[in-house]
Fold each of these.
Amino acid sequence: MNDKLVKEFRTPISEKKVLIGADAGYDQLIFALESSCDETACAIVKNGREVIANTVSTQIKTHELYGGVVPEVAAREHLTSIVPVIEKTFKDADISPNEITAFAATVGPGLIGSLLVGLNAAKTLALTWDKPFIGVNHLNAHVCANYIDSELEPPFIALLVSGGHTQIIKVESYTKQTIIGETIDDSAGEAYDKVARLMGLPYPGGATLDKIAPNGNKKAFIFPDAKVGEYEFSFSGLKTAVLRTVQKFKAENIEIPVADIAASFQERITKTLFKKTFKALQETGYKKVVLAGGVAANSEIRKKFFELESQGYEVHAPAMKYCTDNAAMIGASAYYLCNTFDDLNIEVFSRVACQ
Ligand code: KG4
Ligand code: ZN
């Protein structure tokens, strides 16, 4: 190795001051990994908006057996899937690791064992190819999914509804996201999954309830709206109300009206999410609203929000494949939210947001 190469090799990546993001002034290819829960995902994203390749390997079939995600099982499945998923993504993109500008991975929130698989794979690639590494917050990334194949620009209000979180976020600029409201108990996705489970429907319940609801009467049951702060959410009372209704039918040996319950439950959740997000729009004066997270795939919620277009609002929601967990959103977030790279010592976190 010549002297220059030796010096280059010995310079810690963290000292190389590579600038990442929209202001850096050059084309960037971000390689991203996502493994925070039950999807092993990999993507290569150009300049935050253009997805060159996108691979998702889901574990749903495995966890269906248990009615929910089993953390230890999830981590083991990530270990099995991660290399094939990475290889497929490079092959689909027809890009070599050497052409990648930076390697990114989700650092949290999520399941620790699962996060470690993606994080360590991305760090290893960064070290091997001597490129910068970027740690990404999964929640920020869900919001950034809206930049993919779109011309969306801040400021806007985001409603993030996933399996683990429900938040209203004020997005003032690409790098400034402020949470203005969140759930005090269950998330919207959790409510969907629990309600589906107590009616005997398979995990994850959101998509199933969404499919069943149009066959039911949304006025059949009036489920309660929680009395919490104006930007707070609480869905555990709603879940209990559905449980009581189901128990009543069971006790009387009457067939559970699954479609009517699904429709009435979805109506309640949609109205609550809409009411609070609309309030945030009115208070900030923002004219743009975006949906994010797995529950943003819900047909009724999308319909309700897109109706705002007739009132002069700009409404955005990611394509279905970028609503639920994916790595393209991690690539978009790495580009837009970080203007430099992270130290390779960065660690995973399960709950606290690292904004
Ligand atoms: O964002 P995501 O993939 O994972 C987390 O970060 O949590 O969200 C998963 C959640 C699950 O609770 C799932 O039931 C819900 O999104 N979901 C839906 C729909 N598709 C997925 N909920 C309602 N309607 C849907 N169509
Ligand atoms: Zn997610």
Note: Strands lie at 29-34, 39-46, 50-58, 102-108, 133-137, 156-161, 166-173, 176-182, 288-292, 314-316.
Amino acid sequence: MIIPRLDRIAYGGDYNPEQWPPEVWPEDVRLMREAGVNLVTVGVFSWAQLEPAEGEYRFDWLDRVLDLLHGGGIAVDLATPTAAPPAWLTHRYPASRLVGRAGQVFGTGARQSFCPSSPDYRAAAARITEQLATRYAGHPALVLWHAHNEYGCHNPSCYCETSAAAFRTWLRRRYGELAALNAAWSTTFWGQRYGDWAEIEPARLTPTAGNPAQQLDFLRFSAEEHLANFRAERDILHRLSPGIPVTTNFMIASCKTMDYWRWADEVDVVSNDHYLRAEQADNHIELAMAADLTRAVAGGRPWLVLEHSTSAVNWQPRNIAKRPGELRRNSLAHLARGADGLLFFQWRASRFGAEKFHSAMLPHGGTETQVWRDVVALGAALDSLGPVRGTTVRADVGMVWDWESWWALELDCRPSVDLDYVERVHAYYEWLWRAHLTVEFVRPTDPPDHPLLIVPSLYLTTAETATALTRYVENGGTLVVSYFSGIVDANDAVHPGPHPGALRDLLGLTVEEFRPLRSDESVHLDNGATADTWTELITPRGATPILSYLDGPAAAAPAVTRHPVGGGVAWYVSTRLRAGDLDDVLRRACADAGLAPRDDLPADLELVRRGPFRIAINHADQDAKLPATGTELLTGSPCDGLLHIPAGEVRVIRTD
Ligand code: GAL
């Protein structure tokens, strides 16, 4: 089990008792018990309360909070408070301030306004982490450590002189010789050659597009600095508090700047924060995608939702409240896709500060609210779902996810500003979701065992990736690659020869010219599909054209091709088809892979297999039926043949 000292599905939220008078704390514990809460995250932003002046510690209030929680049978995920450096730190060590790309120095009054490379910040963070670990390692409430909060959320990169020096050290380690750096960064372009390491700067604001290889390296470096900070805290916690797992909350699919494949190798437990984009249609599909990606970085093992919201957030342009039943559907969709714990931001709604209009488990309106009733009902539901904990999800289809390719695709001066990494992944994911095929995300160099692998957008493709994908197809896999993939190497240099250099042999074609579309333009394919954003002039060189452009700048050229290689097949889709218009292509690819979409089920019925359970979430306004035999966990009723899932409801059936 991912939290050995917790014997149930984790349920709770961020608890910020420092925002409330101590008289409120016992009531918090009483209400937590009423809601079935068994785990709360404490102390995330409490540095200034714990260390009001440098080296002066106040733990009495936290002692009391932890004792109260323990007395109520509630376990603690204790946070290191290092995401909110106190004002004294910023003022005593001004070089620890965060500096933006244009040189702007950020002020106090928010959070994460520190330079991740600052030795002063690092030393202070290590000291408070040691203090906490020493004091609470033996506390009976403690079951999990929560390092920092959402690393790099507000300070992904710092551009100060300290960061510049650390970047140069990192580059020396990466390249050894300056000549190697000049070659990797292609500094013959615009006369950017460096004659001395000291001349190299972070990817600061430049009058026009900056060097893309420098920008990529600066992104890599910045992510490493945050990871180094995590490792430092984790190592202290492991040393002083052995046996208690350490986690930190990821922001998967929404945080572009952290490569969570790398992070996941460093944490004891993978955790994620997920917030719906309230105005996006069918946003439960994006939720499923984020949950599948979290499970993937967790290596298929169970993971935790450390934050999601009971209703509206406070930071979107329009903060839309959740619809009836949505809190339950969202939570159980995470559970279906491998989560063994569901926590919210936050337990009790704040009365003040920037987040006072954010929903919570206990809203401003108290217990006479629908949100509270939903929170209590979910706690009770999780009791019945206990047997699901610890089981693993079964997937059908592989899909590549790559942070570096995302970074590279969206740098300056691409053939179209409309190229969007996550949008492409989402379109393919959406079709699979509606076909009831579960996705296993994989690293580009690590194709899965599944018979179908989708590569939605892989602009940056290394030779190693191309080899791995070729082997996958040669060994019988069916591969679907979308446009503008296989174009550049790890330094954003175009692979030699015609596009798509890294993948042209595998795909059996060359792309003579990219033909992106105007913002209001669309084109038609000869199967009736409509596409927009992007077209290409393709010459098949072994591949068979399957669909062609009827109009637009690539009229009459192939739009979709199929190339048998070894025992498998490589498909190429050269234009932007939305999920519905991908239907024809993906059905043919599924047929090649021997996979059958579940056309017998309603498209809005989410269905996931986890261990011996099938979890069905009905997102439609009509009731749905699923052929199934077994016991339904939420109602406790037996089902012999047809499971009835009321509109907006969730059912979990044990089938063994
Ligand atoms: C998260 C953060 C929380 C809270 C929440 C609000 O990004 O970790 O502390 O700010 O957003 O949605």
Note: Residues 149-150, 153, 273, 275, 307, 313, 345, 355, 358 surround beta-D-galactopyranose (CB under 6 Å).
Amino acid sequence: MITLNGLQFQEYISEKELLHAIDEVAVAINRDFKGKQPVFLVVLNGAYKFATELLSRFEGDCEIEFIKMSSYDGTASTGQVQTHIPLEADLEEREVVVIEDIVDSGNTIEKITQMMVTAGVNKYRIASLFFKPGSYTKEYKIHYVGLEIPSDFIVGYGLDYNGLGRNLNAIYKLKTTKMTNLVLFGPPGAGKGTQASFLKEKYNLIHISTGDVFRYNIKNATELGTLAKSYIDKGQLVPDTVTIDMLSAEVDKTPDANGFIFDGFPRTTAQAEALDALLEEKGTQVAAMIALEVDDEILVKRLLERGKTSGRKDDADEAVIRNRIKVYYDETAILKGYYQKQDKYYGVDGVGEINEITTRLSSVIDKL
Ligand code: IMP
Ligand code: MG
């Protein structure tokens, strides 16, 4: 396993397999371009290594030209193809073999195809070391393919993740760990804290309560805590970016965890999207949003009971309690929709004995 820019990758395709695939592409190209003196057009940066190996196997005379393009940022396609070094050579009436590292969405190939037409080539062929048929959205034929692979993000052998990994002699795949990341919801008085501590034990999860994370960072005057405090002191809301950075740091403390229980976050769609992005960067995702469902009247009764013994002021006044419950439903309605769209919403009956409720929660988690 290797780490590049903070992401983990595991070895996926060995150098031996790559060289074997390149041998086969070379055989086909030697057969098709025998005595033809083609121009090999190498697409930088990714294809440099494939081009070196492939061209060292070409048996005839040839010319070599370069263009430089990019369409990826991080581990995802931007959908925009940028040309950094344009085509300078005159390719009119020439036979051209485009050498690409990988064909993914096909956006780059589309742009190159247009370039070939504009250049007035006699004929062009595309050779790509990798092809992801599952991501391909175009119709252009890829004439020579080294290896067809699933749509996972890969690095090595010329391919990079944010600039790193091109020099590796094998292909590595982004490590996607199957984590059980839960977003736990429940109205005040639903027993969320109690259930979170049981689930944490049972599934060996890390409980991230946003409130606790804030208090910890502020108390220890971390950089982010100090920043958050500066907003709080001015009576302003802490910006989502600060909160998400704190959560990110919290997740990074235990990268090998079985998963996390997010408690108190997200509260808005923007935060839910930020959480998705954060987890995706770490090669994982939200597995489920679980909401404890308890009838309002039962909640009011429970909280008033609790108020009598705990002395918590916000548990003593029925109007305050009802308002807190209302705020909860106003906030969660949007998030419920957000996770329902992804088939990740699970409502769990929160009325009954504590262990009964834990059993209901477990039956949801066990199926994730
Ligand atoms: P397309 O335009 O979506 O077909 O993407 C082609 C370009 O995206 C390639 O030339 C690479 O630069 C980059 N790319 C696509 N998939 C990967 C990958 O898995 N790892 C690294 N770069 C990739
Ligand atoms: Mg490329």
Note: The mean pLDDT is 94.
Amino acid sequence: MSPAPDHDAVVIGAGFAGLYMVYRLRQDGFRVLGVEAGDGVGGTWYWNRYPGARCDSESMYYSFSFLPDLEQEWPLEERYPTQPVILRYLQTVAERLDLLKHFVFGARVTSVRFDDQAGHWTVRAGDQLAVTARYVITATGALSAANWPRFPGAGLFEGEQYSTASWPAEPVSLAGQRVGLIGTGSSGVQVLPELARQAQSVTVFQRTAQFVTPARQEPLDPRFVALWKANYQEIRRRTKFTPGGIPIPSPVRSSGELSAAERTALCEEAWRRGGIWFLDGTFSDAVTSQEANAIVAGFVRAKIGEIVTDPATAEKLKPWTHAWGTKRVPVGSDYYETYNRPNVSLVDLRQDPVEEITARGIRTRSGEHPLDVIVYATGFDALTGSIERLRIEGRNGERLEDAWASGPFTYLGLMIPRFPNLFTITGPGSPGVVTNVPVAIEQHVEWIADLLGYAREHGRETIEAEPGAAAEWTAHVQAVANMTLFPTADSWYMGANIPGKPRVFLPYIGGLDVYRHRCDEIAAGGYPGVALSGPAGGLVAVAAPAEVQGTAEAGHDFGLRDRGAGRPVPG
Ligand code: NAP
């Protein structure tokens, strides 16, 4: 008989997902170890400490729902929580729940291998750690494997180079510095105004112009906060049944149902409110109809023209390469206004591409831009990168990169055939990254923990997605995306930002409410699509009840056409 593994479960990561997963498994009586590369908790909010970093989900929504005492105590001061506030929140949660003792920090996982004989996993972090566990749960974040483009000559640069995705914890002094910023996604949009306030000059190197929405950051009115807190648990309950994890009404009318004047008034009002109210506040068909989309896109381009005083700069900032909302829409504070500062200039890399990085700056086709500091805000190998970088090997030594060579293959975004007892939180095929993420994380964690409890109760030790179920889910994820304009853009949703990455739509955009319902149905039906095997290794597949079978087939739209599938929301 093989020796028992060191732990029932290893959870990789100590952000929202890792903290809750460790907590929940401990409460359920599993022996659980958390492993985290950083020296503390926080995940995304531990690493992304760049000036201006904050969440695009509003403060009231961006927290756990299962800590009613903490939610009453926690101050809600500004509309959007800043990185230091969120990091402090997660540190507080970890201390309150006494979770730190379950984690090993400063240990970056370098391999995760399934032992077919023993039936358990070995998780290694270099020479630092080697542990065995029956279950492994990746809580590594959808946007945590940073993308550093390899520009020729980058090693020659004599100044400082920083990434927004791993900004130093100690303050970086930019006074008197000539800064170059590469990247104009959400991170670049947030960091630019801060860089411009501190540095002597900022040169922005823009590959793709974005449709940036104003955040309208502001202090929260204490009366509003009091009212919110008095109703918090009821709001949380409703939030769980929304498509995006935020309880705001979705638009009910399509652009075609409105007059030109009504459309403009609606866009103006949504723009005035900012943030999610613009992202999810115009037309029900904004990302499914070319015509509706063109109205929103034209509205934003007109706003850019009104805000940016130099006409040539305004033209470069107007996006024409993709439909509105099909790349994740950045939410910014003073982003376009910052280009009116005399110390900010813009290089359009489509007209004037980077040729090399030199000792003294960045050389584009038109000449050298002398710099003291280069800031990379160049994004992430989204959804798959943070999981594949763990170097996971499943049954018979099969590598996850090989299993996913032509795109990720999952059941519900949570399990992978031939990788038994491995679970992924907010991985590909999950709605996490197109929702207010903590709400999706809670759903994933609870579903996984319930399944582990179910297996234990039934004397089963091995839990594995069936290939047919994964094939249906994977096809369904694509089918729903294909009902929208999302696949038309070169976005990280499509893997298009990483050279060589397969072009498939990565998250599930059918809505968290629909997804939750589907997951609940599966649990209630005895987990169809999941093979459970006993200690002796005999497979015990639980048949799907008739009413559950077939609902995940490719192209089934769960009524999504009527609900305006896949509206862009903060991630
Ligand atoms: P991103 O959206 O992928 O943006 C990366 C930027 O770098 C893009 O402008 C990209 O241009 C550019 N870039 C990449 N490689 C390049 C190259 N070789 N040469 C020139 N430019 C290059 O990454 P991000 O801004 O870090 O944001 C990623 C996601 O994280 C967001 O979409 C969001 O979901 C999340 N996030 C959220 C918040 C928040 O809630 N407030 C803040 C930050 C990030 P292309 O567009 O041409 O690829």
Note: The pocket of NAP is lined by residues 54-56, 143, 149, 182-188, 190, 207-208, 328, 349, 377-380, 492, 497, 570-571 (CB under 6 Å).
